[in-house]
Amino acid sequence: MTDLVKLAEIADTAALTAKAMPQFSDTQALSVAEGYAVQALSMQRRYARGDRRIGIKMGFTSRAKQLQMGLSDMIWGRLTESMREEEGGTIDFGRYVHPRVEPEIAYLIRDRLAGNVTPLEAMNAVAGVAPAMEIIDSRYDNFKFDLGDVVADNSSSSGFVIGDWFAPDTDVRNLGLVMSINGRAVAVGSTAAILGNPARALAAAARMAASAGEVLHPGDIVLAGGATAAAALAPGDHVETQFQTLGTVTFNVGG
């Protein structure tokens, strides 16, 4: 029988120390349900150290990515206070194993949200929307993993940067964006790549969190999923994403 508590300790230690770990499925494949169990146990270790959950992130929100991974649904992970990075500030590369960045849309929750809701119902619980970037960082050796592995590793969530908040009725369904590193465009896309409408990812966040007995509380943040492929980061990088109508989000990568 798989020792989920031990795997959670390994995953938590890898994230805490920024040291790569072997792929769990090298020795025994994890089901998606086991992956979520490991994720939850790992996050409980963080909470015990004083970190707190402040929201959730969605993953595999691209239909093409779901088909590539053989999925019929998204995955999700927890966001904690320690993952928040300052917009325009400098992140510590040493906190990560092999970090990558992707542009996203962020939602700020105004009213309690849980269970099966429509995108419209989900948006009625929103206080604001914002341009954002997520720093993803699989802690596995060589950034290699299968589905159970990535879910166990908090769905690769490790950091995020959020720009200015806008009114909740701001239309973010199809906004063009350009992500650049050191002045060179590395990704060009649209927020429509997030399920055709990021609000669908928000509704899925409420549904999937509820399946684990969790709700979205006022003040929580939801990252709706990557709008483009992720780009690798290196010390010294300056990262900037320009969003149509929403402005620019930036951060630097320290050594």
Automatic annotation (TrEMBL):
Source species, domain of life: Bacteria
InterPro entries hit by this protein: Fumarylacetoacetase-like_C, Fumarylacetoacetase_C_sf, Hydratase-Decarb/MhpD_sf
Keyword Lyase recorded: yes
Stored Pfam families: FAA_hydrolase
GO cellular component entries: cytoplasm
GO molecular function, one term: 2-oxopent-4-enoate hydratase activity
Keyword list, A-Z: Lyase
Domain Fumarylacetoacetase-like C-terminal residue range list: 98-253
Chain coiled-coil ranges: none
Keyword Kinase: no
Protein name: 4-oxalocrotonate decarboxylase
Biological classification of the source: Bacteria, Pseudomonadati, Pseudomonadota, Alphaproteobacteria, Rhodobacterales
